[in-house]
Design goal:
By secondary structure, this protein is of the alpha/beta class. It has one domain: Rossmann fold (3-Layer(aba) Sandwich). 48% of the residues lie in helices and 18% in strands. It has 8 helices and 7 strands; from the N terminus they run βαβαβαβαβαβαβαα. Strands 3-2-1-4-5-6-7 form a 7-stranded parallel beta sheet, sandwiched between helices. Helix 1 packs across helix 6 and helix 4 packs parallel to helix 5. The longest helix has 29 residues. The chain is globular, with a radius of gyration of 17 Å. It starts with a strand and ends with a helix.
Length: 237
């Protein structure tokens, strides 16, 4: 039976993906700040879930993850689904700081720990949920888009390290568009997918060990448009 950890499983994509992995014979360690939500998930399959309630921005992530690995007796897959972001047109520093604390600082600690664990083990699969927002900047959410750009580039760097290590380490960057979770903010949204649909597609990407995946698939078209819009036009949007 494969062993996985999902960092950020109390709600949203991480929660839906945990259910799919359990249905496919995974033992899973689930984390998040809200212990009651983790306990609800565990009740669905008590034997296959181990829980660890902690805040990525305030705890020793390495210590917490090592404890979960001990409970699972191994690790094949780590999915980092914890993230935050708020609209911040007025550039309130507290909002930007909170976004960077989770999306940059905690993100780096978790993915570094996972990569080093898999490198020592000689194999493993690291999956992180970034965002299509990381492809360009945003006047409405500067720190969110910038932090997701950081994640995209960091994961690319880890893929290079994995390739050079000549070990069976896979790094997957999942770039969602709009998903019906607490992260989807603003009016006039389109192509909003359910978290269940997103999780199902993510599981398919995990099985195929894809390097980059857009969820849902149609957001790949938007990604191509974002990359080709001239700077002169984009800055007026």
């Amino acid at each position: 039976m494969k062993k996985a950890i999902i960092v950020g499983a109390t709600s949203g994509i991480g929660n839906a993906l945990a259910k799919i992995l359990v249905e496919n014979d995974y033992m899973i360690g689930i984390t998040g700040r809200r212990k009651t939500e983790l306990q609800k998930l565990k009740k669905l399959n008590p034997k296959n879930f181990s829980i660890s309630a902690f805040d990525c921005t305030r705890e020793n992530n390495s210590e917490k993850l090592e404890d979960l690995v001990a409970q699972l007796d191994g690790l094949d897959l780590l999915v980092l689904s914890a993230g935050t972001g708020d609209l911040n047109e007025n550039l309130e520093y507290e909002i930007e700081h909170a976004t960077n604390q989770l999306n940059v600082i905690a993100f780096t600690e978790v993915v570094d720990w996972a990569f080093n664990y898999f490198e020592k083990q000689g194999k493993g699969h690291l999956v992180a949920i970034s965002s299509i927002g990381g492809l360009r900047g945003s006047r409405m959410a500067p720190a969110y888009n910038a932090s997701k750009a950081y994640q995209i580039n960091y994961l690319e760097g880890l893929r290079q390290k994995a390739k050079n290590s000549k070990k069976q380490i896979y790094v997957t960057d999942i770039r969602p568009g709009l998903i019906d979770t607490d992260m989807a903010k603003g009016e006039g949204q389109f192509w909003v997918a359910t978290k269940e649909k997103a999780a199902k597609q993510i599981y398919g990407l995990i099985k195929r060990k894809k390097t980059v995946g857009y969820v849902t698939k149609r957001w790949r078209l938007i990604s191509l448009l974002l990359k080709t819009v001239p700077n002169g036009i984009y800055k007026r949007m």
